[in-house]
């Protein structure tokens, strides 16, 4: 039986892979805000069910069956975020938390209705695709982290890390949201980066700038 808890673990593993991280038990404990013993017990059950494998070095891998379930849940989450934003006009920085609550309650029939209504190709309100995309794939598309943006160049915000509500609210306050155009006015000695966005000067530190992917404007 696939419980809500098992689905959460499988989705977290897939999403951590999408961030380019090596998935180990300690990282899952951090991602899901649970104790190390809870992760150990959960992985034991997932291994028993043939949904994950754990290598000798501790790395956790999804099996084909586990990856299928995780991808289905990620797609459902993605569609719910889009529904909340595109149909109900919920603020982009609020939809992730709401979708986390709704994703387990949505039936496959309703998910299919959402897919027909919205289509499956568009990004979510955070600019992310329906399939977690690792950093190397983003770089192949010409994207760079905002923390790497060059002074004097202009960019467009492409996507934002969505699992941190405080970060999303902070970026919204600064005007750094998907689709926003900006120019890097300076890279500062203290490690901050200065932007001109919405005709205002904005400073961002590395912790925030390292969570935003941007594309250079022509």
| SS content category | alpha+beta
Strand content: 15-25%
Q: Give unreliable regions as ranges.
A: none
Beta strand count? 8
Q: Largest sheet at a glance?
A: 6 strands, antiparallel
Task: Give a brief rundown of this model.
Helix content is 45%, strand content 17%.
Describe the structure.
A hairpin with a 2-residue loop joins strand 6 and strand 7 (200-204). Helix 1 packs across helix 4 and helix 4 crosses helix 5. This protein has 3 domains: 4-66, Orthogonal Bundle (Arc Repressor Mutant, subunit A), CATH 1.10.10; 75-118, Orthogonal Bundle (Diphtheria Toxin Repressor, domain 2), CATH 1.10.60.10; 138-216, Ferrous iron transport protein A (FeoA) (SH3 type barrels, Roll), CATH 2.30.30. It is built from 9 helices and 8 strands. It is globular and about 55 Å long. A 6-stranded antiparallel β-sheet has the order 3-8-4-5-6-7. A two-stranded antiparallel ribbon has the order 1-2. The chain has helices at residues 4-18, 25-32, 36-48, 64-87, 95-102, 108-118, 135-140, 165-174, 206-209, and strands at 52-54, 60-62, 144-145, 154-160, 181-187, 193-197, 200-204, 212-216. Helices cover 45% and strands 17% of the residues. The chain is an alpha+beta fold and 218 residues long.
